[in-house]
Amino acid sequence: MPDHLVFLSQRDTAPETSRPEANRIISGDPVFTTWNIEETKDSCCGIWRCTPGKWRIFYEEWEYCRIVSGLSVLTEDGGAARIVRAGDSFVIRPGFKGTWEVMETTVKDYVIRT
């Protein structure tokens, strides 16, 4: 019988390490560690961790995030800076353009729909 319940846990998933594209980095040396728990043709979910730094972001997808730990600042072009910290949940809609600045190493759970 298939398992229809997915737990977001780092235990059974190998992490992938990456960085923002060099031309998007504004400051620091942000390093992403991502545990992609499940991927389908139009969605994925998992856990993401990033070290301090600031870079430009452009969203073409819809993403739900819950900050597990750390402190980050999201700023949409033309908008106010929004601080996100442990316990905060939010959705980034397609078309978002701005910056993500990790002030303290940040861990988030995420669900992305393309």
Describe this structure in words.
The protein has 114 residues and is an all-beta fold. It has a single domain, classed as Jelly Rolls (Sandwich). The chain is 0% helix and 61% strand. The protein has no helices and nine strands. Strands 1, 2, 3, 4, 5, 6, 7, 8 and 9 form a nine-stranded antiparallel β-sheet that branches. A hairpin with a 3-residue loop joins strand 3 and strand 4. It is globular, with a radius of gyration of 14 Å.
CATH architecture: Sandwich
CATH top level label? Mainly Beta
Query: The biggest beta sheet, please?
Result: 9 strands, antiparallel
Query: What proportion of the residues form beta strands (DSSP E)?
Result: over 45%
Total DSSP E strands: 9
Number of helices: 0
Q: Please name the fourth-level CATH homologous superfamily.
A: Jelly Rolls
Q: Give the % helix.
A: under 10%
Residue runs with pLDDT of under 50 for 5 or more positions: none
Radius of gyration: 14 Å
Residue-averaged pLDDT = 94
Quote the distance from N terminus to C terminus: 28 Å
The helix-strand sequence is EEEEEEEEE
Look at the helices and sheets and give the structural class: mainly beta
